[in-house]
Amino acid sequence: IRVQCFDDCLYLLDGRFNQLHTFCVDLVNLHHPQEIKNHGDLPNLKCFVLSCKETCGYDELILPLLYRMSNLEQLGLYMTISIDTRYNDGFIDGNHLKRNIINRMLRLNDFKFHICSCMFIHNQSHFSSTKDIQRTFIDFPVNNIISYVDYFPEAERSQCQIYSYPSLTPFYENITNSFPGGFFKYVRVVSLFDEHPFEHEFFLQIQRSFPFMEELSVFNCKSQNKKQSYESDNDNQNLPLIEYSLLNELAINTVHDDYIEQFLLNTKTYLQNNVFLYIEYESLQRVTHNFTREDTRINCMKINKLKLRGERICRNSSLQAYFPCAKICYPGQFFFE
To answer: What is the model's pTM?
Structure first.
């Protein structure tokens, strides 16, 4: 089931469904509960799966909830965690999972997870490396674990991805150039972020790893390194075309112009019909040569909803003609069916 807040989750686990043995929940927002207490044993619960994109109360809310499930046999955790330095001085790693979950749940025999832990960088003297994190999984009871660490000095933050593979997660966030690849048939929502450029080959790898992706967000302000060499060699036509067969929502509103070209040029990308595009107006105007460019026109004709950032009212009559199938939404407006 999908619930809006942690209160809703606790309400369903307050004892009224005392015979409940399986509970799978997708949590939209993890806010501190306002009314319902997070206590009381849940001895009949055998299987619990929780997914939550943004988690600020992992130590205060999620762990105490798990400790109520004394007879749990199957557990799935899929979440992005903002590390609270009051409880942890490092990333969520294998040692943390053994100490705080596995060793406290004696009946647990099936544990699947995908956890991205994020921290701000504040004058630390030691930074965990990918090898440091991998060593914490040497004697882990789950065999195939993927882990890697990224540091973003400009944003002054860092992140660590750890997950059991093959993965059952419905989303994969903050993918960087460190992404090791793989096949993720359950993922529908993907976001990409890095302070190093994403090249065409990277997007090809993303498409192959997430063939059922429906929503994609890209955050990268660095220009592509290989773009100039492709253009000087007149090699654009030889690039493999990337086809997003199920993509219906694309957010490229915080990117360098190179990534707008990456998705709108019909020599690089094939979009299906009826795509919702979220983009910055001035960048779109530049890349499409004031809505006259021919090699971006085909993909723009496939957009059925266009949400513009930065331009409250567009007085350019060419915009609607360039997006003939699109409902156009400006800042402060909303789409109505």
So the answer is: 0.91
CA distance 229 to 236: 10
Domain span including residue 74 = 1-164
Indicate whether 55 and 189 sit together in one domain.
no
What's the DSSP call for residue 204? H
185-227 pLDDT, tens digit per residue, is: 999 999 999 999 999 999 999 999 999 999 999 999 999 998 7
281 and 259 in a single domain? The answer is yes
Tens of pLDDT, residue by residue over 110-158, are: 999 999 999 988 776 678 999 999 999 999 988 899 999 999 999 999 9
Residue 312 token pair: 């409250």
Return the residue matching tokens 């910055």: 280
Q: Are residues 48 and 90 in the same domain?
A: yes
Task: Show Cβ contacts of residue 157 under 8 Å, excluding neighbours closer than 6 positions.
Answer: 118, 119, 120, 121
